Amino acid sequence: MKSEIPVDIRAARRLTTLLAPTPKGAAMGRRIARQQLIAWRLNSLVEEPYHSALLIIAELSANASTHGRVPGRRFELLALIADPHVLRIEVSDRHPVRPAALAPKSQSGRGLTLIDALADRWGTDPRHPNAKTVWAELDLPTDHAA
Q1: CB atoms within 10 A of CB 129
Q2: Which of 43-47, 93-97, 132-136 tops mean pLDDT?
Q3: CA distance 32 to 27
Q4: pTM more than 0.90
Q5: Can you list the alpha helix ranges (DSSP code H) found in 41-134?
Q6: How far is CA 58 from CA 11, 45, 62, 97, 99, in A?
């Protein structure tokens, strides 16, 4: 007789995955993260962190697949509830942070402005060698039980 032990995915409160730096890899990251956020029941909150988290994950994954692409190297997506009231999202890729020159009429290059509007806190951390992590944090409601 096969015995199965139920696994509560919410108890893990951490998602880490490596993804190909391609549009397909970014799409896979969005799907995996959406499933995890639902498992953590963030989609049932009255407030907004679920949809903001999905947009942040989509933008950072797209950036990693567009600007952080290095053949044969993957980018890392991390979603973590370390503190019961903070969701942290990190995307790490293989390129250092470089300031971008943005033309006023450009139709791209405003992703970090979106992150700034959605996240409660965000920033970048260099990773050795020649890599970076872009992170964003969203405050969760005090009554949320992850």
Answers
A1: 7
A2: 132-136
A3: 9
A4: no
A5: 49-67, 111-118
A6: 24, 20, 6, 19, 21
Buried-exposed string 57-92: b where 16+ CB fall within 10 A, e elsewhere:
bbbbbbbbbeebbeeeebbbbbbbbeeeebbbbbbb
For 12-96+109-139, CATH number out of 3.30.565.10, 3.40.50.300, 2.60.40.1230, 3.40.1350.10 equals 3.30.565.10
In this predicted structure, the answer to whether residue 7 has a pLDDT above a threshold of 70 is no
Q: How confident is the model at residue 130 (pLDDT cuts 50, 70, 90)?
A: confident
* Residue of higher predicted confidence among 127 and 100: 127
Contact 142, 46 (CB under 8 A): no
